[in-house]
Amino acid sequence: MFFNDLRRHGKLAAKRHPMYEKNKFGKVFMYFMAVFWAGYLISIGIGLAYMLRDSFPGMEPYHILNKALLVILIMDFLIRFPFQKPPTQEVKPYLLLPIKKNRLFDFLLLRSGLSSFNVIWFFLFVPFAILTVTRFFGITGIITYNLGIYLLVVFNNYWYLLCRTLLNERVWWIVLPVTVYGILAALEFVPDNHPITTFTMNLGEAFIAGNILAFLGVLILIALIWLINRNIIKRLIYSEINKVEDTKVKHVSEYTFLERYGEIGEFFRLELKMLTRNKRCKMSLRTFGIIVILFSVLLSFSTIYDNAFMKNFIVIYSFIVFGVGILSQIMGFEGNYLDGLMTRKESIFNLLKAKYYLYSIGVLIPFVLITPAIVTGKLSVFSAISYMFFSIGVVYFAVFQ
């Protein structure tokens, strides 16, 4: 079956990656972090059940959590940026094969929809539903509730793919998600009856009750955004293949001030050139910068993320997203010059040191971007400094192993 072949090709591509066998600590660390976050989400789900029951005695806890479904989906959307890549690059090797292109795009989108990334939120919602939904709706309510949440996350997955694919083509497409979420925020906060949270509360209860219309509505939305994704990917793939670009001579900085630092300075210069010239790196840096700015604004000027968990999550995410987003593919972008480097006596250790120095200095960027949160008193200076050094000394150290 073609779908199974695509999945097998994806697994083989991961196993044949140059760093698959070398970065064993990184793999162990990733598995550890996956187990850690699973346990963390389970504890949050259990804690929310009791906390919401005590804080809002006049409402059921699942009503309150359902009101926050849009916030959870926005978090899910943002978390995907450093970890999930659009399928456009995977399409190219298959274009010359005698395969129906629509079938190829459909299978790639199906594989994305069935990704294990989409079941992460089960670790929060399943224990929460067991403690809050069971006494009213039994096991059936738990199953239908989590099935509805899963469908919303799958829809969010395709919404992310659409935005990310367009962002990779033109950075100005950032206007699309910002506009959509801005309109939803305006609809929520301008009227006094808060229609968005009321709608998500009713939608969540419809999932629990097993309302067929609620599931059918979400499935229709998934089908629509599936078709939009397929058409967008098809157009962008063929336009990229057939496109002819004019070469323009540009003045490029040589970073001559780094020459005084010898071999490490030379690698430092190579890393800077890679970040400023490689299209994928530039796109990632712009995206991460926009996400950090949005987080900073929300943390500084709203009360949505005033609880301790969200505040800690936003700050640590802001500090590590730049480094982890690029370093998770360490020695992958360097393929352009790595073969030539191996024929010389230069030290790979110095290359890694230059990377570590650069990304350690780079944490000053998110420190500046979250300054509004410090000015408004939402975050203390010493907390920001401690998170900054935690990112450098613990997170980056683990990524480099």
From TrEMBL:
<keyword id="KW-0472">Membrane</keyword>
<feature type="transmembrane region" description="Helical">
    <location>
        <begin position="356"/>
        <end position="375"/>
    </location>
</feature>
<feature type="transmembrane region" description="Helical">
    <location>
        <begin position="28"/>
        <end position="52"/>
    </location>
</feature>
<feature type="transmembrane region" description="Helical">
    <location>
        <begin position="64"/>
        <end position="83"/>
    </location>
</feature>
<feature type="transmembrane region" description="Helical">
    <location>
        <begin position="207"/>
        <end position="228"/>
    </location>
</feature>
<feature type="transmembrane region" description="Helical">
    <location>
        <begin position="171"/>
        <end position="187"/>
    </location>
</feature>
<feature type="transmembrane region" description="Helical">
    <location>
        <begin position="283"/>
        <end position="302"/>
    </location>
</feature>
<feature type="transmembrane region" description="Helical">
    <location>
        <begin position="314"/>
        <end position="335"/>
    </location>
</feature>
<keyword id="KW-1133">Transmembrane helix</keyword>
<feature type="transmembrane region" description="Helical">
    <location>
        <begin position="381"/>
        <end position="400"/>
    </location>
</feature>
<feature type="transmembrane region" description="Helical">
    <location>
        <begin position="136"/>
        <end position="159"/>
    </location>
</feature>
<dbReference type="Pfam" id="PF18940">
    <property type="entry name" value="DUF5687"/>
</dbReference>
<protein>
    <submittedName>
        <fullName>Uncharacterized protein</fullName>
    </submittedName>
</protein>
<keyword id="KW-0812">Transmembrane</keyword>
<feature type="transmembrane region" description="Helical">
    <location>
        <begin position="104"/>
        <end position="130"/>
    </location>
</feature>
<dbReference type="InterPro" id="IPR043742">
    <property type="entry name" value="DUF5687"/>
</dbReference>
